[in-house]
Amino acid sequence: MTPRKLYEEAVELLKQLIQTQSFSKEESNTAAIIAHFLEEHRVSIYREQHNVWAFNKYYDASRPTILLNSHHDTVKPNPSWTRNPFEAAIEEDKLFGLGSNDAGGCLVSLIAAFMHFYERKDLKYNLVLAATAEEEISGRNGIELILPQLGTLEAAIVGEPTEMQLAIAEKGLLVLDCEAKGKAGHAAREEGLNAIYEALPDIQWFQQYKFQKESEYLGPVKMSVTMVQAGTQHNVVPDSCHFTVDVRLTDAYTMEEVMEVIEQHVKAEVKPRSMRLKPSSIPLVHPLVQAGIRMGRQTYGSPTTSDQALLSVPSLKLGPGFSGRSHMADEFIYVSEIEEGIKLYIELLEQVV
User: Fold this and answer.
1) For 137, which DSSP code?
2) What residues contact 85, with CB distance under 8 A and at least 6 apart?
3) What three-state secondary structure class fits 95?
4) Is the pLDDT at 1 greater than 90, yes or no?
5) pTM of the full structure
6) CB 218: neighbour CB atoms within 10 A?
7) Would the CA dihedral through 329, 21, 74, 102 be positive or negative?
8) For strand 166-170 and strand 299-302, is the pairing parallel, antiparallel, or unpaired?
9) Distance (Å, rounded) from C-alpha 131 to C-alpha 37?
10) d(Cα 336, Cα 7) in Å, to the nearest integer?
11) Which of 46, 24, 20, 49 is closest to 35 using CA atoms?
């Protein structure tokens, strides 16, 4: 297909995806749309649950493989939407709709780039396209579920809105459920041990502590207490105070090292929800990064977490759209961003594969 045809079909596919509800764990219908689109173009596909993937036509197991991945699940629309989130409306250059920016534009652009290379016989690398589920909730039935079936991967491009700049590092995520314990008593008398007061020094420590090492691209580890729950009624001294901490990790520390520091300083009981969402990066000298730099793209570190966290190979986060539009009311992507995204994905991969 010509670049223009690739672009036109990508926009039409994105409109179909927007018009089809695909909240995390409810992506069956968008998976079917993606599978149908690929099969219509004579691409052999695989599907497990709500994940769809395909290899280039002349896949050769003796060659290294690059993964092209993005997700088709969305968050639920927030109450501030003034439009129908499932109406794919184009007004001037803007395509409105839930998931248009995060990450539908990236996904259809990667699909278009995959189609461009699909029948090529002269590739030095295999390409595997994976349209995956549950990214928005870091679920276990998304990219993590199908990784063993994608073969040995050498590197990955993860489609997320980066304005087609090169996110060569990404913060990891550690969510901590903490409990400070006290002893119940009547608030009118000097009795009991107030669990809220027991929690305060720990909460203050999370606010003030600075890890010594900083990442070149990701800066410092960031810890934020984001939720606090305690008490049953106004006249009862609470015997338990639960609080939640959002920890954004960098490549300067392992998760285990961060947990060790926290446990040394905090009195409350601390339980991590998961140790899966690790910081990720790709070396500056990697061919994918160098190709992007030659194209005039800038490198940076991303504070937000994506499916990169679940990959064990060097991965580059790159895609059309702007991260600041993700999850916002009246979400949109510029269709010109999709056109540029397809062009730049192809130009970048052309230099490498």
Assistant:
1) G
2) 77, 97, 98, 331
3) strand
4) no
5) 0.91
6) 23
7) negative
8) parallel
9) 12
10) 9
11) 46
